[in-house]
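Lab notebook, page 48
Experiment: co-folding of the full assembly
Goal: obtain a model of how the components sit together before planning crosslinking
Operator: M.T.
Materials (sequences as entered):
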Amino acid sequence: MTTLTAARSTEPSPVLVMARIEAGRLLRHPIFAVALALDAWLLVSSVMVDPEPNLQRMSETWAILTAFCLGVGGFLAMYRVTRSTDASREVVAAVPVDEQQRTLALCLVCVIPLGVAVVSGLFTLIAWEPGPITEPGFYGRLPWADVWLFNVCVLLASLGGPLLGVTLGRWWSWPMAGAVSAVLLVAWCVSTGFRTTSFVTTLHHQAAPFTLPITGASSEETFRQGGSWWWRVPYVASLCALAVIAALLHGATDHRRTLLLRTGTCVAVLAIVLLVVSTLTGPQGVLLWRA
Amino acid sequence: MTDIALTGVTKSYGSTHVLDSVDLELHAGVTGLLGPNGAGKTTLLRILATVLAPTSGQLCVLGNDPTTAPGRTACRRRLGYLPQETGFPRGFTPFAFVNYIAALKEWTDREARHDEVRRVLDQVGLSELSTKKLRRLSGGQRHRAALAQALIGDPDLLVLDEPTTGLDPEQRASLRRVLSAAGHDAVVLLATHQTEDVAALCERVIVLDGGRVRWQGTVTELVATAIGRVWLADEAQPGALASWRTGTGRFHHVGHAPPAGAELVEPSVEDAYLLLRGTAADVAVA
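Observation: model returned without errors.
Model output:
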């Protein structure tokens, strides 16, 4: 009893200590390890086979690989890490570090996939020394602001996926929930590949946690999807915030629950407003280029 | 000084009272909690471990009210809890598991935490297996890993639900040594079906039945209730509450009215418990 008190006095926050331990668990988790390896291997191999790497092809590769490997892989890994202590639920329920602190630690760990995405992006830019854009599609036709905003959304996907994994890990405990959710998540994102032709299709496109700014019926043409990427970035960021709040809400009681519910409601309303604004503003679907 | 006090503590699920107006006081030392399955032992332990909130009644654990958030946290800082069944995260070793729980118990200094983890693993005899995957260990070894986490920081309150289940005699003897040492300063409450553990370890006994405290007192007092009510005979005798054929071929009887000239023997905790349960059943029937 005395040793416990003595050890507690001058040390770092338990949340940070737990975050460090959970970070180690994420990095050792087989799903995340495979996702990291796959991301690195595909990224390097794609440029190795490309005789003339250029910013357009490189960025497409980086964006899709990062969103898939780190976003979806991070989602699955964090879901499993979050659920892993379920077996020891009774023991974990009787410790002073409560569920909200543990959840917060898990959310902090989600900056690891984000950090990896940033590093891989910088590596892509610096190490490959891509040549000038020679193809007319995608980046060649999009405003540079949109390109960079899209890349920010890619980074947010690598953060949001793992955060969503923590949230679902807290709330959904039925068997295969993680795998089913991952499939649905990917299906949702893939379904935004159709051309946006109306408010509803643009709303569907903008609402997805990850989507591409362009689409093409074939390699012969490039179609710029509708909606504003200026508003989409804060919308996706608000989804990340919602995931954190929803995860923290699990097991919260008394005034903490009330506070989280109020904050969550505000953020949800903000997200809806941002989504609608991002759908209504910006250029609507336009054909950028045709061979 | 009273370390734990329960006054009129009730736990209900719908119209079912799992605990019904339980009044208890616990002090430093080892207290055994006996009772049949469904008596409410685990519920009582879960309430004391702050895992479950009572439906009504007052609770004071080490000077704190665990029904409030600050009181609960204060209790948990001084608590060690071994649930009836403990699962482990996949891929963990005993060291990793106990280290994880130690971090959750606010052992934030890495070096001090690792020292403490090694200490409690040594205490339960798992030092040499500390880096082996838990799934490769036997049930008894896993149980000891679960017990080790409860011992972190020498808690002031140790709540143990069937701590000796699955342990071999040597491990059981070793555990008794650990728990009796803990009981010098701390309140140790253990629920068990093993009456020999109660006889060997506990200073006090509480018998729960139907969610109510049926009996409480010292082990000596419990055993004393059975003096003159346990006897040996060559044949099974009707009228005894319980009887069985012993290894010597004679019959051990427990009952309220031994026949005249019966060969009385010294009762055990188990005999006294059976008598108490028999009495309880009689009362219930009446």
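Interpretation: The interface with chain A takes residues 46, 49-51, 69, 73, 76-79, 81-83, 85-91, 97, 99-101, 103-110, 112-113, 116, 146, 149, 152-156, 185-186 of chain B (CB under 8 Å).
Next step: discuss with group before ordering constructs.
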